[in-house]
Amino acid sequence: MVEETIFSKIIRKEIPADIVYQDDLVTAFRDISPRAPSHILIIPNKLIPTVNDVEQEDELMLGRMFTAARKIAKDEGIDEDGYRLIMNCNAHGGQEVYHIHMHLLGGRPLGPLLLG
Ligand code: AMP
């Protein structure tokens, strides 16, 4: 049994979030605890707990996460200067919310390592 997280409620708009993009496959919203001027989480609308649970049938959605990231980076005005995309998996990866998500971080130079 896969347990929902707070992110499912954000997708369904049952709790507030600053949603910057949503389509049939993915939702993107600003991180509640931003670690860069632009810090956005891009998540699948379908609940997948970790990257270890990704299946071949998810490949379209995974590609959409990247095209959404490209669009959002442009909308944020950070595409030319650059940005970082991060996905954390399980305890050693520092994953806190078990609904896969891509962190999009930018708006300042990030240095060699950020989350950890
Ligand atoms: P991770 O450590 O990769 O699992 O990242 C989880 C991220 O979710 C953290 O950066 C949190 O700040 C963020 N987060 C948790 N709850 C919320 C929320 N309700 N709205 C927006 N971001 C959230």
Automatic annotation (TrEMBL):
PROSITE patterns: HIT_1, HIT_2. Gene3D superfamilies: HIT-like (3.30.428.10). Residues 6-115 form the HIT domain. InterPro entries: Histidine_triad_CS, Histidine_triad_HIT, HIT-like, HIT-like_sf. SUPFAM superfamilies: HIT-like. It holds the Pfam family HIT. Coiled coil: none annotated. Keywords: Hydrolase. GO terms for molecular function: hydrolase activity. A motif (Histidine triad motif) lies at residues 99-103. It is an enzyme of class 3 (hydrolase). The keyword NADP does not apply. Its EC number is 3.9.1.-. It comes from the Bacteria. PANTHER family: HISTIDINE TRIAD HIT PROTEIN. This is Purine nucleoside phosphoramidase. It comes from Vibrio algarum. The lineage of its organism: Bacteria, Pseudomonadati, Pseudomonadota, Gammaproteobacteria, Vibrionales.
